[in-house]
Design brief:
By secondary structure, this protein is of the alpha+beta class. The protein has one domain (3-126): Trna Endonuclease, Chain: A, domain 1 (3-Layer(aba) Sandwich), CATH 3.40.1350.10. The chain has helices at 3-15, 62-73, 93-101, 117-126, and strands at 19-23, 35-39, 42-50, 78-84, 87-91, 109-112. It has a six-stranded mixed beta sheet, with helices on both faces. β2 (35-39) and β3 (42-50) form a beta hairpin. α2 (62-73) runs antiparallel to α3. The longest helix has 13 residues, at 3-15. The protein is globular.
Length: 130
């Protein structure tokens, strides 16, 4: 089982009971994220990744960040959720752009251990655009 699949299974187990998650297996549009979610009435996109280090994600693509920018420009939510060993990392669009460029990436959180459900929910379901 790939690390990204492990991230998906953990996410589905922990968030599934709190809302609706749809895994996108075969994207038609390049850059389409891995998961579409609705939690507490908020819908957004999640890109799932395996990180090479806490500050490097070689599998993140320009198409994925482009998709993220278009979602954000339309007022939507997009996040990058990944793992490096036992560290969970969450990035918003701006952080993902910095990560892609290799310029001082700044995750919304970097937490070791189990999936930090409280912190994840704070970002996915409770932060709303003004």
């Amino acid at each position: 089982m790939t690390e990204r699949t492990q991230v998906w299974f953990t996410l589905r187990r922990e968030l599934g009971p709190l809302g609706h998650l749809t895994r996108i297996e075969h994207p038609i549009i390049p850059g389409t994220p891995d998961v579409l979610y609705t939690i507490k009435g908020v819908t957004g996109w999640l890109e799932l990744k395996k990180f090479a280090s806490p500050v490097r994600c070689p599998s993140l693509t320009v198409a994925q960040v482009g998709f993220a920018n278009r979602v954000q420009a339309a007022g939507g939510l997009w996040f990058l959720l990944g793992r490096y060993k036992h560290i969970w990392l969450l990035y918003n669009v701006e952080g993902a752009e910095r990560l892609l460029r290799g310029v001082d990436p700044c995750p919304l959180f970097s937490i070791e251990g189990e999936l930090p459900l409280k912190e994840l929910l704070m970002h996915l379901a409770e932060l709303k655009k003004p």
